[in-house]
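Bug: token stream looks shifted between consecutive jobs. Job 1:
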Amino acid sequence: MGKTECWYIISAEPGAELYYGHNAKTHEELADWINNGQWDKLFRKVPVKAGEFYYVPSGTIHALGKGIMVLETQQSSDTTYRLYDFDRVDKTTGEKRELHLQQSIDVTNVPHEDPKLNITTDKVDDAEVTTFVKAPISKYFSVRKVSLKDGEVSFKREGLYTLVSVLDGEGNITVDGKTYTLVKGQHFVLPNPVKEWSYSGKLELIVSEPGEA
């Protein structure tokens, strides 16, 4: 039960932190700290900076702190358990949002362990391709960064479809003989019928594809 996701840090203010995991050693300690609202003792805070990648397996307590912008890729799921909401009030209802304390206790991994990733960077044509996560570590999605300083790079379909986010730069994508302009801030889908494509110019892209799960 739960939802696996990941974060690529697009920007982070000085001193920005993630809430990533917890400090409890046993389920009893976890339940005690949660039920007594000992959040400072419970939450594990991690300083972050732009360009970092965090894989968040299901069962991991997590939240973004102030001053952080991320690109999130996640498993398709309609389940979210809210452990703590920083006492925020819903502007539409004037009330605090519902919490799910017992469900959170039941599904949280104890003790917390950072996932062991195998991040690699390879030269592909004129680009550097950094693979942050893929099967077998992640059965739900793969995530890569394509860094093209100047030149061209070609790809062939690997998953059912491909999601692309343009983090920086400008350039072009060529599909089936047609060329389209790409600029920072664009997001698009390459559907299954598209089997091959190429990028040119100066671009930094995050590319994700669904896994087999």
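Job 2, same session, no restart:
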Amino acid sequence: MADLLRDLRLALRQALQNPGFTLAAVLTLALGIGAATAIFSLVDAILLRPLPFAEQDRLISVWGEIVPRGQHHVEVSLADYAGWRDGNHVLSGLALVTTNDSDVAMTGRGEPLHVRARLTSDNLFAVLGAEALLGRTFLPGQEDRPGTSVVLLSHRFWQRHFAADPAAVGQKILLDGEPHLIVGVMPREFRYPDDADLWTTLSGIYAVPDLRDLRIFHAVGRLKPGVTQKQAEQDLLR
């Protein structure tokens, strides 16, 4: 997916838009890791109500904050994510998704199509508590397995371009010339973080050094069972 990697390298020069849902900053926590701290905000349950997420009140959004520059609510990098994921004691899971869509060429099914893709960590759907309508979501460690590029289709895209055929699961498509296995179709109401056509994993990106520090991701986490806002704040500020 050379074109997609190119898009990622150019991402810092683009005018980044807000993600597909707004956050209520009812909880702000700082986690001093590297050059940036992290802002944790509970996701606004009202705005997420139409989405099929389990225990929405335990979902939090994670943004970067670069204090010396006075920058708040900035996108996070892979390096930020690795530190926060491994250094916290209050989250049962932390996941990533690219803030903006990437324009990807899909071939292998008649006329080429330009589709809107989001790259995610393999645990995004597990953290959200979202399940596939058909097939499955991504498996743990999927993004680290060479030669196993997989993709999830949105319900709308599946209807328009696969005629709502359940047999689409298990087929292969080409994204920017690289084969991807369709492993599932998401429910009609799933639109996170917006109306993407498909989702694929971060496979191959970790191996590209100059991509690790690009702030092009939004992070979402889930509080561990029994962890309150106050307990989370105390833990993260230690």
